[in-house]
Each structure stands twice: as structure tokens, then as C-alpha cells.
Design a protein that fits this description.
The protein is α/β, with parallel strands linked by helices. The protein has seven domains: about 180 residues, no CATH class; about 180 residues, Rossmann fold; about 80 residues, Helicase, Ruva Protein, domain 3; about 210 residues, P-loop containing nucleotide triphosphate hydrolases (Rossmann fold), CATH 3.40.50; about 90 residues, Orthogonal Bundle (Helicase, Ruva Protein, domain 3), CATH 1.10.8; about 150 residues, no CATH class; about 210 residues, no CATH class. Helices cover about 45% and strands about 20% of the residues. A nine-stranded mixed beta sheet has the order 33-32-34-31-36-35-37-38-39, sandwiched between helices. Strand 32 and strand 33 form a beta hairpin. Helix 8 packs across helix 9, helix 17 packs parallel to helix 19 and helix 34 runs antiparallel to helix 35.
Length: about 1150
Amino acid sequence: MHFTIPLFERRTPRTYQTVTLGLGPLTLTREGGTAHRVLRKLVESLQETFEKTPAVALARIEMARGLRIERVRLEMVIGAERHKVSGVFPVILEPRWATEEEKITLAYHPERQNEAIPIDEDAPLAGQVRALFQQAWADLDAVALEQLQSRGTERIKVIGFSCSPRSVLSDLPRKQGDAVEELSRSKRKRRALKVLPKLGVNLMTRAASGDLDGGVPRNPHRDQLAHLLGPARSQSVLVVGPPGCGKSTSIHRAVLDVLEADGFFTHRNLDRVRSVWQLSGRRLISGMSRLGEWEEQCIELLEDAEGRDLVLVVDDVHHFPRLGQSRQSARSLAEFFRGPLGRRQLTLVGECTPEELRMLEQEAPSFAALFTQIHLPEATRAESLRLMLREARALERRLPVSFGPHALRTILDVGGSLLTSRALPGKALDLLRDLGKAPGRVDEKTDLRLLGAPEVLKMLSAKTGVPEVLLQEETSLDPGAVEAQLTAQVIGQPEAVRVAADLVARVKAGMTDPRRPYGVFLFTGPTGTGKTELAKCLAELLYGSPSRLLRFDMSELSGPDAAARLIGDRWQPDGLLTRRVQEQPFSLILLDEIEKAHRSVHALLLQLFEDGRLTDAAGRTARFNHAVVVMTSNLGARSRGALGFGEVGAGVRSQVAGEERMKDIAAAVRAFFAPELFNRIDRVVPFHPLTPEVATAVTRKELGKLLRRRGLAERNLFVSVAAGVAEKLSEVAFSAEDGARSVKRAIEDQIGSLLSDAISGASQAAMQLLRVRVQGEEFALDREVLEEAPPARARWAIEPLLHAPPATLARELGALSVRMMELSESEALAQLSARIQHHLEAHRQGLGAGDVEDERTSEVVTHAEAVFNFDAMRAEVAAFGAEVEHYRKRIEGDAEAEHMLLEARRFGQQVHFDDHTGTRMRQMRIVRRSLLGRLERAPTRTEILEQLAEGFALQQVLRKVDAPGQHAVVIELLRAGTMDDRPRFSEGRRGGLLEALARAYADARGEVEGWAALQEGQRVSRGGGVAGLAEVLGGDAEVLVLGVVGLCVLDFFELESGTHVWTSLGRGPELVRVRVLPASPGVTPRSVLADHLARKAAFDEATRRGGELVESPSALGPVVRTFRFDPPERPGRNATFEVEDYVMGHADRMEVRSIEQGLEPLWLLRRTREEVSS
């Protein structure tokens, strides 16, 4: 028997609640998290209730036509305490026939259906139900009353179901043992499902509740599926297509079509439509360990399907020929279900890729023949764009995002070409959904995240590892810069480096074959020449990390099972190579010592190099068209002896021997590889034996790696290497036969052991600088303990005000304004003007004397500088006094003027006082809002503190304005130690403490007059003002010298001299030594840098000779300041900044965007320095 029941439903963000309507004493209420589960439990409860209810009671159940819901605003006085309740309440209006001719309408609250009254539909509804609710709800508390109010999401819906209720005859007395009646009753009762509710998902329930997305229909495939699954005689169907082409969505659309064809939207009864369940073969046999156990469960599944016209949707049908097989039995799911499918007891709908279909037809041809195949092609770009637009609008409704006009096109163009393992539209829709979760710029007006092409490229770079610079078409890539980066890492192999740089350029330009790997290379040459190192560099350049290098040692694949291990076999379908490339298709495949691999491996490589794909034993395809394949080989490298460096005429003989060896290698490679495989290698790249000069350069690089290890940084140890250490190591350890490997061993054995002993004996708390130097035939270690600088004999006047309340700061600013007025009229400023006149007159007399001698010229310059400083001081005092007064007025304000302006802004009226009567008048003003004056905001705490500090600084400057050497300084910054372990090819790799301090000094006080820098590669650059300084700060300067001029800059910067230490979690610590020098005549940034280079050359020469050492130009002073700061990952965000200044005796913790911002409070304190006596 079929029933149709109306429901009242209410949705909240976390729950779904529903109540049956019109059932009287049979009313049921259910609540839960998801709608389809709540409705399923409700239907089961209703079926159970109706089967137990007498037939006479069920006869009265009838769905009222015209049932509707009204939301009524009521203001009621509830209970004896007469507390007021106001709100909107849902009211159900249910039409009923009182007699055959008279019709009445009942009104009641859906959650209290026993409290109902007939109403007059022509009269206001609120007045009629108010009296009822006030009386009926008198005993309810405030919480219960709030639950009864409307949430705005209530509605009425209808459900239908079928059950076998008791008949009238069942209520009559029966004779004892009436077996015929019991048998007929048991037949009428439908048998419950056993297996499907435990293992499967009811797709019909999800479709009926609207939780099944059928996408946009694609014909003719939709019509084909609808015909094959039609009500006449369903056939088993196999939907075949590449991953992401829409197979699952097409099946979901077919389920929705079946639901509509069975008339569900008319009768709303799921028991009257066909059952469609989703199940997997793995789930069906999971946990079945005993022989015959899974067969029993499959038999129960067939019993569930009996008489129900059941359709099973299976997503792993291609695994059926193997699922179920074991050592005890060769029977599989394919063999079990072959009979039921042939007899049409069951309908299966499966999906698979063409490769999986081929495997299914090979392993179970009779089972595969039972399916009708529908081949679903990849969607076109136009179809994909329409689907993406639909999905984008749906995401914009659900999420606070807005997709830019170029976002969808970028996903199609760039994402479509990168993610070739999936087809359209699936990969484009997945990327669009991921983009909806990505961070973006927030629009201030709409609070929506704006997602455009830059966000798409950032997301694709994070997914694939490919750097953004290779994805952005508008960003150029300098091949020369790439070659220079590679040359710094792979030394002495210019030809190999050019090949690698050319590959990067071709990937950037999109000139690689989309069906093949990016490149197939054979690196040949002696051991230890950089073959593996270049492969790591390529992996880091192309894919962002050296971990993207997938290394396979071919000596382990020399047996006849080598091919099976790489691509899998029947018993182990996951191959070593295919599985790792499926997990990470953006990678570099390194086949080390390819000559040791079994010949069967070469046959696989032939397919890989030609088609860019391999299929494993499970039918899964691994695609290599975004990978680079590098093979290494030592073929021919051992055919000759050592090259004999150090003998007479060794240079000429080594060059000839090297050329002969390269010819031997090329001949051995051609002889080893089959022609069809050799011709598919893009480039055979020869690696030449290392020379002693190259070995020395390699030694320096490997020493740098050793000194950046975390063990040193964690113990506050910083290591520098003196001149001559690398040369000595290379001389002692280099062997032409072993290449760089012999050097690496020597570094570990000698320098590594030396550092290990130092670490063992080092104090954990002490910060130390270790210097490795040559001592005779051995290596020695010098230790320098970095102590904290003693505190300065000074106090900071503004320090008590840093955390003072705003009222206190306002009073201090007022007092400062008074002091500045007194200062402008003080005798000190008058004397300053007199000194200006004196020096100006002396300057004029000196100019009138003409060019006489250097002493006279020096006096002229001195007088000119004094005039400039005194005049700047006077102008500074005057300008600052006006600025302080402006800030004071911004704090105090003119209350009456502000009130008048607010009135005019809000109401177009102006309030003023009549001069004659003294009364307050209101005057209308017709004025555009755009013409109204803008209310100036009150100054911030930081602005007030800035003014207070500057006022104090000016008072101090006035006392020292004529002190010699105060107004020009030279600041030398030396990068003394760094543990930067970030990726070596990342943009702006350093950007560390030296650059941060330089930017902070340039903005702290005075102006930068000039600079000089020693950059990487011993390149010296210089400039005037700040021109070109930004470019230097974006590079890798080792030494930077700034010339700063301004009033009393020496007094401000002199406490910076010493060592500054920056530590963080994301990178190793960094040390910068700062020296502040008065800019006396002849002392310029250029001269200071030249002096540093000269002293460094002398120190290096003394170190090489091994004699008495001179003072090191890189010696560190006491630690002035330490930072702990991890820069925020996203620009504009804040991060925790901890600073401890030992000289100033100040420690602080704050949230800032950069080190420069974190130093601003220290500059504030520094300006209020007051000397104190000991």
C-alpha cells in the first residue's frame, strides 16, 4: 500500500529537523545532521508504525490538499508572570472537510499539533492564533518559546513510501494454529535488505534529497544510458573513458533520469522506484578471510536483489577478475557474477578507463562480454568552459569568493596542459574547486576574495612544484642567469650546464613535445664529475625541490625480473617506477648506471622515451610527459689509466688524454645501446674529468655545505674558513680517478672531525665563532667566544611612555608644544643664529682669498659645513614646533567646530550662535556632501610617540650641533656568518639580516649620501644617494658601506657597533658585524671598503704562508642585539618579533611584518638618549 505524508522541515547550519503533519497520535519527529539519513530513519519508523496500526485508524489518514505554512509576527504576554514574547512563528493552515458540504481551516504550530483552532480566513491570522498560543504556552519557559520561533528556513515537503499494513481481517479473532493465514501474511511482508545497507550507498535516496549532482547532461551518452537502464529490461553497462571525463557524473545523471522516469516527483515514494545502490568489489570481500565466506555474502546480495529490479553501480569492476582469488581458491567475483548477470538477476553499471577495459577483457573475456559499452570521450574546451562557469557561479553562492575574468581561461590553458593524467572537464573543475579555497586579495567593499590568474598560477605551482616563473608567460627568463646559477653548483662542466639551461628555457617557452618527456639525457663520464649533482639541480630548478629526483639504482635491476619490478606483475601490480611517477608525475627520473640494467629494461625504456607513458600490471597508466629522464653511465670511463697531473707537460697531455677518453666513451655508448633506443635519447652529455683548479672550486663549495649543517646552528656555533684551506684540501685529497668524491671524503674526515671535537667541547650557552685555518701540514681551529655587549651608560627618556595611556601621551604632547615655543624664543637659538652669521662671514672671506693652499681650503669647507648644520638645526626647530602644535590641535580639537561639521554632514544643517542674542541657532544648509570638509582623525599612539621622541632629540641636538664629526657617519655592514639552508635556486635567496639592517639604517635617521658594496664574485659597486641601493639589497652583498649625513647621526648610530644575530625556525641563524665610523675628511664608503679589502688580502696572504697572523678584518665584536623572527609567508601579514638589545638594556616582543618595522621602537628610544654618570 502506498502512502503520501506531508512534512514540516527546518534546516539550520548544523541540523535538519522534520515533523509529520496531519497524523494526529501517529505524529513523529526526527532530527539529525544530514537530510537523507533523517528522512530514511523517518520512513523506516513510519513503515514500522503503520504495519502495527489497525486498518481502521489508517483509513482516517489522508493528505490534506491545500496545506500551507504562514509566518506570523506575534507579540504576546505569556504566563502568570506576564513576560512579553515577540517574534515570528510558523503556523500551519490545514483545510479539512467538516461535512460533505462544509470546509474548515485549522491553524496550529507544527511542533504542537494538538493545539489547533478553526480560523476565519478572511480575518487577520495573528489575532486569531495569539489567544490560542498565549493560553496553551503559559507553562513554557523562555528557551522553549525561542525554539518555537521561525528560523526563516521552514517549509513543507512531501514524502511517499510503501508498506504492508494490517488488513481488517487481521483484527478478527483467529483460530489457534492457522498455518495458511500465517504463510500468507509472511509472503505479503517484504523481506528486509541484508547486505546493501551495510556495504553500499543508496543513490536513489541521495538523488531524492538533492544531494546527487548530475552535472550538465551530455548527449547522446545520456540517451544511451537512459535506454539501456530503461524500465522494460535493464542491461549491464560499462562506461569507458579517460580519468576525469565525467563517467561518474554521467552515471549520476542516469540515476536522476531513472528517478524521474519512475514518477518519483509525482508520488514522492521511493518504494515505488527502482533501487540503485553504489558498491565496490573491495568492500564486498573486505574482512572475508575464511574459504567461502565472501561467496556467502554475495549470495545474500543476490537475495537482496530478488524481486527488486536492483541496479548496482560499481567503480572497480575491472578488478573483479582478481578480487576473491586466494591460495585456496581461484574463484573471483567475475566468475561468481557471470551467471546472475547472464540471467538478468542483477544489473551492474561500471566505469573504467580504456586500459582497465583492456585488462578486464584479457583476464575475464566472458564476464566483460556481458556488458554493453558506452565510450565517453573527453569534453571539448567549449563544453568544459560552460561547466566551469556553472561551477564558478555555484562556488560564488556558497563561498565568499569572486572569480576574475581570466581565472577560468588560465585554468584551462595552463592547468589543462600541466595535468595531463586527467581529462577535461574533471581536471578543470577540480582545479576550480581548489582555487575557491585558495587565499586571495580581499575586496574592502564586498569582503570577497578576488581570485584571478595570479592565484591560479600560484596554486598550480604549489601543486606541481614547477616555479611560477616557468608558468607565467609575461615573466621573462634569462638563460644566461640560469646558466650562471648552474655553473655555481656544477663546476667545471660548461657543456653539461649549457644543456641543462637550454632544457629549462625550452620548458619555459613551451617548446617541449607534449607527448614525450621534457628531455631524455644520457650523462656519461668518469665517476665524481657532477652527473648526479646536475640531475639534482635540474630537479630543483624545474620542480622546486631536490626531493623530486626519483633515483633508481640499475645495479639492483640486473636480473630477469627487472621489468616486472619496475611496472608490476599479476601478484604485485604496483611497480617501483610506475607507482612513484603516478604519485608524482612532476619529477626527474634518474636511472643510475644504466649499463648494469637487464636487457628487458631497455624494452620498457623504448616505450617510455617514445610515448611518454607506461601501464602497470593493474592497468593504471603512469605518464612521463612532465618528467625528465636522466641516465648516467661510466661506459668507457675506466678504459684508460689516470691522467697524471703534476708531471712535466701535464697540461698538454691531460687535454689530449681527456679528448681521447671522450672518444672512447662515445664509442662505448654507441656500441652498448641498440640503435632504436640510442636514437630516442635527446642528448648524450659528456662530463669531463676534473682538473686541479676545478677540484679546488668544488672543495670550496663542499666546505660551504658542511658549514651550513644544522648541528652547528643548534649549538650557536658559526664557522668561517681562512684562505688556503680549500687549496690545501684539494692538494692533499684530489684524485683524478675518484673526482669530487675523494674531496668530499677528505672534508668529512679532516674538517668534519675537527668541528665534531669542537662541538663536543663547546658550551651550549656560549655563542662562538670558529675559524678553520692551515697550520703546517694540518688544519687548526681558532675559537672566538661572542660575549654580550655591556650596557651603555645612558637612559631613554621616552621608555616609561611606551605603554602609557592616551591621556598621558596627550598631556606630554601639550607640554612638548610649550617647550618648543620656549625653545624657539630661547637664548640658545639666538646664539645659534649668531654662530651662523659668524661662519657665513668666515666662509665668504675664505672664498675671496682664492685658491691658496689646502689648509685655507679646508677652513672654507669647515665653515660651509657649520653654516649648513646650524641653518638646518634652526629650520628643523621651527618646522617641528609647527608640527607639534598641529598634532596637539588634532588631539584637543575644537569641539564646537567639530559638532557643527558633524551636524552639516548628517542633516545638511549648521548650528551657530547669534552674536546679538547669544542664543544657539540652527541654520539649514543645502550643500553637497562631497564639498563638506573632512574630519581629520586623531593621531595614533605611534605618531604621538614619534613627536615626543623627536622633540627630545632636537633639544639634545641643539646642545651638540657644533660638536665635530657628529653630523656624518660611515656604517660598515659585514656578513660574518650565515646558515641559510633554503633552496639554492629560490628567488631572493638571502634577503637576510644585512639587507634588513641596511634598509633600517637608511630610514632611521639622516639621509644616505653614498654607498659602496662588495658583491658575490668579488665585484665592487658604488653609488651616490639611494640610487642603485635597492638593487644591491636584492642581491648577495658580502660587505656594504653606507654614508649617512644628518643632525647628530653619530650620537644616534654609534651604539650599533658590534655583532647582530638573527635566528629563526625557517632558516639558519645569521651574523652581521656593524662598524660605525665618524666621516672625517677622507673617510668615505669607497675608502672604507677599499681599506677592508686591503686588510683582508693581507690577512689571507699571512694565512696561506702559515706565519704570524695579522688582525682579521672580519673579527667580530661583542653581541649588540639578537632577533628571533620568522617572516610571514604571505605579504602584508604579521609575525612574532622578539628582540633583545644588550647595549640599550631593552627587550620586547611584538607583531610586525619585517625586521625594519620591529626596529622602529628602538629608534624611538635611541632618539631620547640621555648620558648618565657611572
